[in-house]
Amino acid sequence: MKEKLKIDIVSDVVCPWCTIGYKRLEKAIAELGIEDQIEIEWQPFELNPNMPVEGQNVTEHISEKYGSTLEQQRESQERMTAVGKELGFTFDYFKDMKMVNTFNAHVLLDYAKEFGKQTELQMRLTTAFFSERKDVSERDILKQALLDVGLNAEEGLAKLESEDARYEVRSKEGYWQNMGVSSVPTIVFNRKSAVTGAQPVDLFKEVLSELMAEQ
Predict the structure, then answer these.
(1) Which domains, ranges and CATH numbers included, belong to the chain?
(2) Per-residue pLDDT tens for 94-119?
């Protein structure tokens, strides 16, 4: 049996372009019919590691962080909503939407990896945040997401109190930052080459075809 192509996706659950990038990558994999030859692992990256517990209004946050005007933000959100729709994903931006702290979500994604449920949980949390207006820093929301993908919620939530589990996520974040990852999504192939940003499906197909030929 030939070795699978390993894809690391460095991302955050509240990053819209990470969702779009993944959905395009998924489409490229499906169109090439190579689902069984790919192994995906999600790697932690916090867009806002210093985000306080109460979160911050999205509009305010983006104005502060990127200097975007309200008009620019509205255009960007409309564009993402349209792109999401093409890919079968709903972005539901609303006035009181909050940017939240995602560290606990990453701890649970690390836990989900042990059971082969990482992608499912990633998409469940992303959907909760962008499509269902839910705060993915809240324990109840995190608990429900674990249950929705068939994981043991008590065992998963216990990881949030584990120093080892938290240290593991911090170490991984540090590893990717040291590798030069400063924006997400960063999609890494076999830990040798990488693509940043939500690239078009055709570009992903091209990259995948070349790598599969080398394999």
Answers:
(1) 5-207 (3.40.30.10)
(2) 999 999 999 999 999 999 999 999 99
Q: Which amino acid is at 153?
A: A
The CA-based angle 181-187-192, given to 5 degrees, is: 80
Q: Rounded to whole angstroms, how far apart are CA atoms 16 and 19?
A: 5
Whether the pLDDT of residue 161 is over 80: the answer is yes
Mean pLDDT, residues 6-15 taken together: 98
Radius of gyration of the chain (CA): 17
Q: What is the pLDDT of residue 163?
A: 98
Annotate the chain with DSSP letters as a single string: -PPPEEEEEEE-TT-HHHHHHHHHHHHHHHHHT-GGGEEEEEEE--S-TT--TT-EEHHHHHHHHH---HHHHHHHHHHHHHHHHHTT------TT-EE---HHHHHHHHHHHTTT-HHHHHHHHHHHHHTS---TTSHHHHHHHHHHTT--HHHHHHGGG-HHHHHHHHHHHHHHHHTT--SS-EEEETTTEEEES---HHHHHHHHHHHHHH-
CB-based burial of residue 1 (10 Å sphere; 0-12 exposed, 13-18 middle, 19+ buried)? exposed
Mean pLDDT over the full length of the chain: 96
Digit-coded pLDDT (tens) for 39-62 = 999 999 999 999 988 999 999 999
